[in-house]
Design brief:
single chain; alpha+beta; BirA Bifunctional Protein, domain 2; 5-stranded mixed beta sheet; 3-stranded antiparallel beta sheet; 5 helices; globular
Length: 191
């Protein structure tokens, strides 16, 4: 049985600080039960102690931007490895959307999107997947206004991309991609 992936764009501004990446946050905040991804706009300020990436935490990094489009997802059933594959698929969908609909070239390295080349290369995104006791959790942040970022960064505003339209279409495309993956698993004959 395919439970489907629920998506919702949240109209009001929300800050992302790190603790949102917890089981049932989407259910508790938006009453959406099951595997889901929500998107919203707002500032980002994740302090070192709230990072779930040990490499970044040990380096005493932090994440900051005046405004991002945030995608927060929770997936019930997959393993952490499958969660990372879904993250990479989602990031690929975002890069494809930016290229096809907005004409922005965003090379992907792992789970990161970039704009520019060489010394002029700037980071467009942040992303992480982690496990909870009951699910895999995802955060992808796409800079709208990267002011305050600890690394050279670029935002959708500078690229001429309207953030709300981008977020809505990204949710739709990712949900369609996930449905297509599910459909592909149900149409083959075993050998």
């Amino acid at each position: 049985m395919n439970p489907g992936l629920k998506t919702q764009y949240i109209e009001h501004e929300l800050a992302y600080t790190g603790p949102e990446l917890r089981p049932h946050w989407i259910l508790s905040q938006f009453k959406i039960q099951g595997s889901a991804v929500v998107a919203f706009r707002g500032p980002c300020e994740v302090k070192t102690g709230d990072l779930v990436d040990w490499e970044d935490r040990l380096a005493r990094d932090h994440i900051r931007a005046r405004e991002m489009v945030h995608f927060v997802g929770e997936f019930f059933g997959p393993t952490l490895r499958e969660g990372v594959w879904m993250q990479r698929l989602f990031v690929g969908v975002l890069a494809e959307l930016l290229r096809e609909r907005f004409g922005v070239q965003t090379p992907r390295t792992g789970d990161d999107l970039w704009v520019g080349e060489g010394n002029a290369r700037r980071k467009l995104s942040v992303s992480i997947v982690t496990s909870s006791a009951v699910s895999q959790l995802l955060h992808i942040g796409i800079n709208v206004d990267p002011a305050g970022a600890p690394v050279p960064a670029v935002g959708l505003s500078e690229l001429g991309v309207e953030p709300t339209a981008f977020a809505r279409e990204a949710l739709s495309r990712f949900a369609a991609e996930m449905q297509s993956v599910w459909d592909a698993t149900t149409k083959v004959m075993p050998v």
